[in-house]
Records
---
Amino acid sequence: MSSLDNKVAIVTGASSGIGEAIAITFAREGAKVVVSDINEEGGNKVVELIKSEGGDAFFIKADTSKPEENEKLVAETVKHFGKLDIAVNNAGIGGPAAQTGEYPTESWDKVIAVNLSGVFYGLRYQIPAILASGGGNIINMASVLGQVGTKLSPAYVAAKHGVVGLTKAAALEYANQGIRINSVGPGYIKTPLLVQHLNDGQMDALIKLHPIGRLGESQEIAELVLWLASDKASFVTGTYYAADGGLLAQ
């Protein structure tokens, strides 16, 4: 028996990178997966891949920065699969690089809307549905920058710190109601979005931040999320798990 048999899961930001790896891994472990993203083409490709391996998935386009689209995402999931057991709030954006005193205010609003408010909106509608299903769990995607700062990314750092705090607050509220809520903090992961924006010098600088001597792989994050989503992590809630090649240990 696979670890997620008969479970229904939503994964946001699932058209590529970490979200894609999580969606595929969940499906391989028996979950019925709702692949969600604003990238319809990419999301449908992930669904096709899951189905080609014998899994069950469908795509819902949703902008997580909008509460009504989070509500619709959950409602359509329950309508299609009958319930919701697991949610992974993975959708996120980086935003421009600029000092705080020069940071574009419209970029601040957008990064906070997607990376922090989007997680809250997800929780707001996922929690009632999971309660109605008899319990389950939620994993929120934070970052190593949810624990430490870095220059030129004030909105991203603030949002990811907020995700960690929001996760703890929600986890305490629902710990005795059968919902576990945790956050994951990846280091720098070798995703298409990251690689295409870096030159060789920038890539080398990022690699040097990690004592393990390389960037992470999306599948490595997916394996941690899978564990948190499974009954193997049944005593784990309200916790931040770093997967960062030793970055935060320095």
---
Amino acid sequence: MNVTGNTILITGGGTGIGRALAEAFHALGNKVIISGRREAVLKEVATANPGMAWATMDAADAEGISAFAGKLIADHPDINVVINNAGIMKNEDIKAAPDYLVTAEETITTNLLAPIRLTAALLPHFLKKPKAAVLTVSSGLAFVPMVATPTYSATKFAIHGYSMAIREQLKGTSVDVIEIAPPYVQTTLQGDHQATDERAMPLDAYISEVMDILTNQPDATEVVVERCKPLRFAEKNGNFDQVFAMVNGSHS
């Protein structure tokens, strides 16, 4: 992937990793559009970054995603990159079944169906571009699940598999498929406490390493920072049980 000269949509671009990626790509001179459900948050980020655009999108609205993509292409015909970043992460008590299904289904809709739907809506346009890319944010928990968040972990497992499969299908086209797998990062994904948790990787350090990989390894298909490698390669390294215990002894 080229890190300059793009028009990039970043979902969930109002906060956390999404905002940080948006600002990093914006600083490199890319045209960046951020999306999310909260208009006020998006406006605040765009105002802080002159030239950045924004548009609201509800990840739970299947028909709305298709309409959103159509308007996005009309308003920004040069769009050639999407970063599927929007996601939610909530604890679930399986023994409280069926009550936890509300959380499970919301998580699947936001974390898995939304990126699949948005990619499907944008892909015909991307295939006409000389260079395009679909980036999807998974998690270290795609490789070592967290017991407290089974559906979140499952959606990230699925995103990993989906990225691998469509990458192979799109081989030989103009569209790169890249998976970004963060470790436990200082964001508000699971609440305000996470943003200051010393066990989590500082957000600025994480984004710096991600951008370094994307810049210096333009053919990378997975963006896995050093902090995430113990999870990504736990099975390969033969220490899955130990890493699983580490992840589930505390937040990961």
